[in-house]
């Protein structure tokens, strides 16, 4: 094994950078915030949009067997009876009658009592814990003007069920036959009792889910296919390959619908944790929705008359959790000419801003030429114009938001219409003609990319390792 240098990234540094540079804020901060709920600012929106765009690109643009869907968040309440969520999507909880706090009964060792100094619930003589009882994680609300029996609905706890209930619609209009998939990105809601670790576990989050319908005999093969394809998606987008791993669920860990599940895990500063789950759901969902709705949910081959209920392979990822992993993996600090810089070494396609256009000084025709360059480039990529402050400070700002290229317009630019292109990672500067810039940026964005952190051999020390 190569000797590794321990990463300098911590969750606190990520939280601080996200706040400082306007990626992610606590929700409703002026009122003291809402626990485990976050708002995305400008660069956070651009980053998460890029994560979702790359997922769509891998699912739709680069395949011809997947179609898109955008189902409603509020679904018919019978959906959750059929899916098993109403009966089984629960955590065991205990309440403390003294401090009025609620804790997960199966994880008291990770919880903290609000008394000071903080101990685990149950460790103070005054702690008065109730017996454990099951608590459903779905948020319930009502539809219509009258709160009456039958008007209860739930905010969806996963996007997957919107896909299953649309199976018949999609099969009819898209003229597909298994194997084929339906992909969806959207918000999901869970009343998590032990949320935390920034956007790793929140009560409102976005999922990127594919339900891939296959002939039953092919399920194992497709399960293996998606394990490989989904792991590659993360490493192709720059995550160091020694920071992602597959972990197979043991029989006692499997969800009620699953025949086999493996998690893609990432080595977060909190230790190895789930990034995405890939499950072989068998025919559980289609059979249950057929039973509860009375609709036949099966594939019929019109030429042979063959009919069967397809099995489902489900790669289910979190957009927020992926964005967090990309941020953590990209975070770096280094010494440049006696100064410490913080830099996000994001894959250029994930970077919120692709190119910054910076006039060296605010005179001699440089701002005018810089604006002309910026206005040309912003039709091609997300670009930013900045003329305020020293050039060094402007570079540092762009480094911190992960902008891969900074263009400097100087005296020579006004004479010969060339600019210097500064590379965020290597700091190399290259002169490029203004007329060639758009093409050059397109080329660089499509080129394979590998994080310099992998080349340097830096790796996160596993905080959970003995
Ligand atoms: N349809 C299957 C399903 O929902 P899951 O493992 O419960 O499976 C899939 O969720 C992914 O959604 C997780 O791997 C994670 O990335 C994301 N996710 C789940 N709960 C989350 C939460 N409370 N906050 C942020 N992301 C979450």
Give a brief rundown of this model.
The protein is of the alpha+beta class. 29% of the residues lie in helices and 27% in strands. It starts with a strand and ends in a 7-residue tail after the last strand.
Layout: helices, strands, pairs:
Elements: E1 5-6, H1 11-20, E2 24-26, E3 38-40, H2 42-61, E4 66-68, H3 78-83, H4 85-88, E5 90-95, E6 102-104, E7 133-136, E8 140-142, E9 152-154, H5 160-164, H6 167-174, E10 180-189, E11 204-214, H7 219-236, E12 244-248, E13 260-268, E14 271-282, H8 284-293, E15 299-300, E16 307-308, E17 311-318, H9 319-330, E18 331-336, E19 339-344, E20 355-359, H10 366-377, E21 383-385, H11 391-401, E22 405-409, H12 411-416, E23 418-423, E24 429-433, H13 437-446, H14 452-456, E25 458-459
Parallel strand pairs: 1-25, 4-10, 20-21, 20-22
Antiparallel strand pairs: 2-3, 5-6, 5-7, 8-9, 10-11, 11-17, 12-13, 13-14, 14-17, 15-16, 18-19, 22-23, 23-24
Helix pairs in contact: 2-9
Q: Would you kindly provide a written description of the structure presented here, covering whatever features stand out?
A:
- With 466 residues, this protein is an alpha+beta fold.
- It contains 14 helices and 25 strands.
- The chain has a 7-stranded mixed sheet, with helices on both faces. Strands 21-20-22-23-24 form a 5-stranded mixed sheet, with helices on both faces. Strands 6-5-7 form a 3-stranded antiparallel sheet.
- A hairpin with a 6-residue loop joins strand 15 and strand 16.
- Helix 2 packs across helix 9.
- It binds glycyl-adenosine-5'-phosphate (GAP).
- The site of glycyl-adenosine-5'-phosphate has 19 residues, from strand 11, strand 14, strand 17 and helix 9.
């Amino acid at each position: 094994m190569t000797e590794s240098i321990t990463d300098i990234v911590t969750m606190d540094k990520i939280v601080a950078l996200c706040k400082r540079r306007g990626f992610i804020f606590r929700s409703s901060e002026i009122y003291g915030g809402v626990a485990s709920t976050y708002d995305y600012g400008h660069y956070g929106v651009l980053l998460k949009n890029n994560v979702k765009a790359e997922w769509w690109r891998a699912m739709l643009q680069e395949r011809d067997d997947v179609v898109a869907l955008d189902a409603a968040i509020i679904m018919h309440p019978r959906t959750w009876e059929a899916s098993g969520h109403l009966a089984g999507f629960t955590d065991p909880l205990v309440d403390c009658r003294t401090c009025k706090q609620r804790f997960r009964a199966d994880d008291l060792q990770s919880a903290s009592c609000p008394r000071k100094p903080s101990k685990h619930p149950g460790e103070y003589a005054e702690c008065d814990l109730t017996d454990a009882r099951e608590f459903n994680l779905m948020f319930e609300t009502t539809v219509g003007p009258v709160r009456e029996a039958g008007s209860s609905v739930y905010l969806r706890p996963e996007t997957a069920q919107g896909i299953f209930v649309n199976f018949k619609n999609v099969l009819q209009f898209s003229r597909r036959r298994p194997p084929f998939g339906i992909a969806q990105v959207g918000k999901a809601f869970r009343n998590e009792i032990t949320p935390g670790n920034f956007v790793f576990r929140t009560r409102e989050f976005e999922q990127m889910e594919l339900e891939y319908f296959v002939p039953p005999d092919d399920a194992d093969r497709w399960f293996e296919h998606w394990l490989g394809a989904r792991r590659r998606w993360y490493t192709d987008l720059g995550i160091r390959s020694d920071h992602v791993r597959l972990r197979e669920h043991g029989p006692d860990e499997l969800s009620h619908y699953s025949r086999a599940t493996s998690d893609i895990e990432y080595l977060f500063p909190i230790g190895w944790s789930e990034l995405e789950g890939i499950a072989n759901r068998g025919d559980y969902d289609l059979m249950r929705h057929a039973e509860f709705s009375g609709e036949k949910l099966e594939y019929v081959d019109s030429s042979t008359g063959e009919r069967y209920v397809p099995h489902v392979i489900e790669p289910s990822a979190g957009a927020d959790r992926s964005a967090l992993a990309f941020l953590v993996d990209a975070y770096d600090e280094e010494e440049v000419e006696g100064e410490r810089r913080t830099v996000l070494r994001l894959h250029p396609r994930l970077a919120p801003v692709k190119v910054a256009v910076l006039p060296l000084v605010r005179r001699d025709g440089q701002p005018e030429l810089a604006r002309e360059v910026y206005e040309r480039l912003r039709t091609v990529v997300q670009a930013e114009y900045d003329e305020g402050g020293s050039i060094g400070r402007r570079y540092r700002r762009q480094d911190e938001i992960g902008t891969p290229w900074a263009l400097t317009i100087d005296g020579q630019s006004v004479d010969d219409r060339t600019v210097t292109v500064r590379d965020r990672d290597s700091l190399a500067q290259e002169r490029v003609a203004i007329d060639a810039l758009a093409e050059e940026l397109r080329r660089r964005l499509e080129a394979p990319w590998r994080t310099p952190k992998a080349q340097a051999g830096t790796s996160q020390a596993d905080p959970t390792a003995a």
